[in-house]
From TrEMBL:
Compositional bias of kind Low complexity: 35-48
Bias (Polar residues): 49-62
Source organism per UniProt: Trichococcus collinsii
Pfam family, one: Cthe_2159
Signal peptide: 1-33
Name recorded for this polypeptide: Carbohydrate-binding domain-containing protein
Length: 624
């Protein structure tokens, strides 16, 4: 039969379902559907997902073969399948409806002409203690449909018996062909040998409820994993969701349109061999025991036990990864709600990250968000409540969004080469695309960024450029770190910047800045005390409550006039509420110390000088 090809270029899976909904399952009729993933420059590239038209979960009972299980007995009513003891083998294309309990057996698909097969699980329980419960050995594609209102269970044992020295299947539900799961029913998988659901080609999940416990990975798609919707509860000894083919161009992608995901994984929560794209969904992910089992501190971190059959072949790189969202290629997020509690990086890619939306709550034992190459944030709400370094990449561009982060080292870091600021040899440290000295660029064009850092607040091995937006830095208290730390230049051209911290390594923006700033390393400030900056005529320019003790302050605003004198009053209190520390239309009370500072574009640094070469003494400041 001639294949029917439908081009779904640049259309999400929901549109694909609408187009394919008019079709029933067609015998030996395949399609080629194209989905999109974001490339490193933010554009989209096609990732081909070959599948049947089985995204339509409808079926006709009158045209199907009914198969009933009772302990180790199989009854076949129809054609295309035969039972040999407790082994059911499907050899012809068509739809097969399975019900009942098979206590020790297997469902095999071995079509002679690489046909399409639909298996409807209609209240079926299949247990196989020596192999896969469902094994698709040969077919063009296999569709597993979960009948409405039913709960279906697949389980295996701790050891498998293989044919002819093979090492597959290695999953409770295993397919060598394209695999599609749909229907609104529930699938419970108890994987005791290795993985729960694994497809050697493309795996597409359109809907359904999945409750998975696995000693290995929960859901694996080699060429791609595409999830349109569904509810997933996963407890995995390996990765939660995974694609694996990194050898072939356009393969190894992982795309999620929507769904609800509760993932607890010893390794990565969601891992793509190449590109990862998330358009929406609700995600609660815990990896590696959570952020309390920090990859930056624990000497035993990364030694979680792999399944026995993988122990001899699993590399150190594969085992020592417990990231929340991970990609080797591009990682693009345009929406969704994320609660990530990870012992390793919460969001990580070896290439580029682009975030254009979403709501993130992150607790990380390493970096909150890390990209080896570039990281761009256009929109979204990001709260990094715990991290080693908050946001890290070779180049970071912030165009919008609301970001609040807390870090035990640098808040925002752009670097090249190895993670040089990390403790030498610590687990979880990262590399960067560029290895040259002075690599690193932080560009801030908009949005709000609040940094609470024990290390440097904003740190660049190269340059920083701020053109708009609001940046608040509650910086370090020790003298070896600074609110700002850059090796080349910090051009302050627009927006509002306020940063407080220790004075030892304090730095101002560069003399090449277009916008004036105030800088002093002579303020006495206790944590939770308020600062007010007033102009020559007593007008209030800024009221700010710091969350850390400080001796230095850097402030820049379009309201400053170059050469004018401003008074900084510390030790006060404020009333009202603020999520950033900046207060508007509030009353400032008290104040025990004042410093007069002139607005300037001349660079200055603290008592010990910063790493950017600005070693001149503090200018324009006097203490009253």
């Amino acid at each position: 039969m001639k294949s029917t090809i439908i081009n779904l270029k640049n259309k999400p899976l929901t549109q694909m379902l609408a187009l394919t909904g008019t079709f029933a399952l067609l015998t030996a009729c395949s399609t080629e559907a194209s989905t999109t993933t974001a490339s490193s420059d933010g554009s989209t590239t096609e990732a081909t997902v070959e599948s049947t038209l089985a995204s339509d979960s409808s079926y006709s009972e009158s045209n199907s073969t009914a198969i009933s299980f009772s302990d180790d007995t199989i009854t076949v009513d129809g054609s295309g399948a035969a039972a040999d003891g407790s082994i059911l083998t499907i050899t012809q294309p068509g739809t097969y409806i399975l019900s009942g309990t098979l206590s020790e057996g297997q469902v095999r698909v071995e079509t002679v002409d690489e046909a399409d097969v639909q298996i409807v699980l209609d209240g079926a329980t299949i247990t196989n203690s020596t192999g896969a419960a469902i094994y698709v050995k040969s077919a063009n594609s296999a569709t597993i449909t979960l009948a409405e209102g039913t709960t279906n269970t697949l389980s295996d044992g701790e050891t498998y018996t293989f044919e002819d020295s093979e090492d597959e299947p290695d999953a409770t539900l295993f397919s060598k062909s394209d695999l599609i799961l749909n229907g609104t029913g529930t699938l419970v998988v108890d994987a005791n040998y290795a993985h729960a659901i694994k497809g050697k080609d493309d795996v597409t999940i359109a809907e359904g409820t999945y409750e998975i416990t696995s000693v290995g990975d929960a859901i694996k798609g080699s060429d791609s994993l595409f999830i349109s919707s569904g509810t997933f509860t996963i407890d995995a000894g390996g990765d939660g969701l995974q694609s694996t083919n990194e050898e072939e161009e356009g393969k190894g992608t992982l795309t999620i349109e929507s769904g609800t995901f509760a993932i607890t994984a010893a390794s990565d929560g969601i891992q793509a061999a190449t590109d990862l794209q998330i358009l929406g969904g609700d995600f609660t992910i815990t990896t590696g025991g959570g952020s309390t089992n920090s990859s930056t501190e624990s000497e035993a971190w990364g030694t979680w036990a792999a399944p026995a059959e993988e122990a001899a072949t699993t590399t150190t790189e594969e085992t020592t990864s417990a990231k929340g969202l991970k990609a080797t290629g591009s990682l693009a997020i345009s929406g969704g709600t994320f609660i990530l509690d990870t012992s390793d990086d919460a969001i990580h890619t070896n290439d580029t990250i682009q975030i254009t939306g979403g709501d993130f709550t992150i607790a990380s034992g390493d970096d909150g968000i890390h990209a080896d190459n570039t990281l761009t944030i256009d929109d979204g709400t990001i709260n990094i409540n715990q991290s080693y370094e908050g946001i890290e990449a070779t180049e970071i561009t912030l165009n919008g969004g609301n970001i609040t982060l807390t870090s035990t080292d640098d808040g925002v870091n752009t670097a090249g080469g190895n993670d040089a600021s990390a403790v030498s040899g610590r687990p979880g440290e990262n590399t960067f695309t560029s290895t040259s000295e002075g690599a690193g660029l932080l560009t801030i064009n908009g949005g709000t960024l609040v940094v609470n850092a024990s290390g440097d607040g904003l740190d660049s091995n190269g340059s920083i450029e701020m053109n708009d937006g609001t940046v608040i830095v509650n910086g370090p208290t020790d003298s070896m770190n600074g609110t700002l730390d850059y090796d080349s230049t910090f051009n302050m051209n627009g927006g509002t910047l306020i940063g407080v911290g220790s004075s030892g390594m304090a730095m101002s923006p560069s003399s090449t800045s277009a916008q004036s700033f105030l800088f002093t390393s002579s303020i006495p400030l206790a944590a939770d005390e308020a600062i007010q900056i007033t102009g020559p005529d007593g007008e209030v320019i800024m009221t700010f409550e710091a969350s850390t003790t400080a001796q230095s302050l850097v402030f820049s605003s379009p309201d400053l006039v170059n050469g004018s004198a401003y008074t900084i009053t510390t030790g006060g209190t404020v009333s009202g509420e603020s999520t950033t520390g900046i207060y508007e239309d509030t009353s400032f009370n008290g104040g025990s110390s004042t410093v007069d500072v002139s607005a300037t574009t001349e660079a200055s640094s603290g008592q010990m000088g910063g790493m950017g070469g600005n070693s001149m003494p503090v200018s324009g400041a006097s203490v009253k």
